[in-house]
UniProtKB/TrEMBL annotation:
<feature type="transmembrane region" description="Helical">
    <location>
        <begin position="274"/>
        <end position="292"/>
    </location>
</feature>
<feature type="domain" description="EamA">
    <location>
        <begin position="156"/>
        <end position="291"/>
    </location>
</feature>
<keyword id="KW-0472">Membrane</keyword>
<feature type="transmembrane region" description="Helical">
    <location>
        <begin position="127"/>
        <end position="144"/>
    </location>
</feature>
<feature type="transmembrane region" description="Helical">
    <location>
        <begin position="218"/>
        <end position="237"/>
    </location>
</feature>
<dbReference type="InterPro" id="IPR000620">
    <property type="entry name" value="EamA_dom"/>
</dbReference>
<keyword id="KW-1003">Cell membrane</keyword>
<keyword id="KW-1133">Transmembrane helix</keyword>
<keyword id="KW-0812">Transmembrane</keyword>
<feature type="transmembrane region" description="Helical">
    <location>
        <begin position="103"/>
        <end position="120"/>
    </location>
</feature>
<dbReference type="InterPro" id="IPR037185">
    <property type="entry name" value="EmrE-like"/>
</dbReference>
<dbReference type="Pfam" id="PF00892">
    <property type="entry name" value="EamA"/>
</dbReference>
<protein>
    <submittedName>
        <fullName>DMT family transporter</fullName>
    </submittedName>
</protein>
<feature type="transmembrane region" description="Helical">
    <location>
        <begin position="249"/>
        <end position="268"/>
    </location>
</feature>
<feature type="transmembrane region" description="Helical">
    <location>
        <begin position="38"/>
        <end position="58"/>
    </location>
</feature>
<dbReference type="InterPro" id="IPR050638">
    <property type="entry name" value="AA-Vitamin_Transporters"/>
</dbReference>
<feature type="transmembrane region" description="Helical">
    <location>
        <begin position="70"/>
        <end position="91"/>
    </location>
</feature>
Length: 300
């Protein structure tokens, strides 16, 4: 298989596995597990593997000098990108369906454009403005029916997942210049370790220290999230970006909402209305339109 073919295969697998996380969270919530406990299971069960990978690549030195401020930025982005984004996402899933969660999270490329304009004075083009408007029309169409069905819960859940999208977009915008310094593998491992430490600190102050009270399936879902929805896809996505480039990979991200909705239909019996399906298609079109424009811009 060609390098491009492998990149597409890795990207599809990574996106689908990442998308399965929301379904696993909803399945675990059926056993009334606390949000912070579930997040602890996910991060701590994946932590040994990231430490092992760091040990394996320890002799591979960075090609550029890494300064103290780089490590400080790494701490900040590990806190924002993996701890806060995950925590807001897990909280939001208490209130909304897995399919809706993925649709809201999928708007993060438009937030990246906003943040680039806000902090780096990057101009927002007419094409980007069009894509952003289309995307948010899709979100409104998707959410309107849900708001009528479950009221304020959908609003609370949607807001929390939107916060997750904002923090993840902040991580993408800010960490882009650090990844070449540390290397993709080392940066990902460090960021995940920082996130795990943040969750532990949070748990020290807010947890009930009763992690062994749950039925066996909860720990099974925690392990599955750690391995199949965190560890494996994090490196599949890295491998895909390495072979295809970030612009091409972002197009594959369109599979995220679709795969989540299909998995939620199979495992959670979640059903979306025709209006919600229409909204999903509008969101996917808007983000794909934005991604394709970036790709054309990069080729010029």
């Amino acid at each position: 298989m060609s390098t491009k073919g492998l990149g597409i295969l890795y990207g599809i697998l990574g996106v689908v596995l990442f998308s399965s996380k929301a379904v696993m969270v909803k399945l675990a919530y059926q056993y009334h597990v606390e949000t912070l406990d579930l997040l602890m299971f996910r991060m701590f069960l994946s932590l040994p593997f990231y430490i092992l990978i760091l040990f394996i690549i320890r002799k591979k030195r960075p090609t550029v000098e890494i300064k103290t401020k780089d490590y400080l930025w790494l701490l900040a982005f590990g806190f924002v990108g993996y701890y806060l984004a995950s925590y807001f996402d897990f909280l939001g899933l208490n209130y909304i369906k897995a399919g809706l969660e993925r649709i809201i999270l999928f708007v993060y490329p438009t937030i990246v454009v906003f943040l680039g304009w806000l902090f780096f004075k990057e101009r927002i083009t007419k094409v980007q403005t069009t894509a952003i408007i289309i995307t948010y029309i899709g979100v409104v169409v998707t959410f309107w029916n849900e708001l009528e069905l479950v009221g304020n819960e959908a609003l609370i859940g949607g807001f929390l997942v939107l916060l997750s999208a904002i923090t993840y977009a902040s991580y993408l915008v800010g960490s882009g210049w650090l990844i070449p310094k540390f290397g993709m593998l080392r940066f990902t491992c460090y960021a995940m370790i920082v996130s795990t430490c943040c969750i532990l600190i949070h748990y020290i102050f807010s947890g009930d220290w009763d992690l062994f009270q749950y039925p066996l399936p909860v720990y099974g879902y925690g392990f599955a999230m750690a391995i199949f929805a965190t560890l494996i896809p994090s490196f599949l996505v890295s491998a895909s970006i390495e072979r295809l480039g970030a612009s091409n990979f972002s197009i594959l991200g369109s599979l995220g909402p679709v795969s989540t909705i299909l998995l939620a239909y199979i495992f959670l019996a979640e059903k979306l209305t025709y209006w919600q399906l229409l909204g999903m298609l509008i969101v996917i079109f808007g983000v794909t339109y934005l991604s394709l424009n970036r790709k054309r811009k990069a080729l010029r």
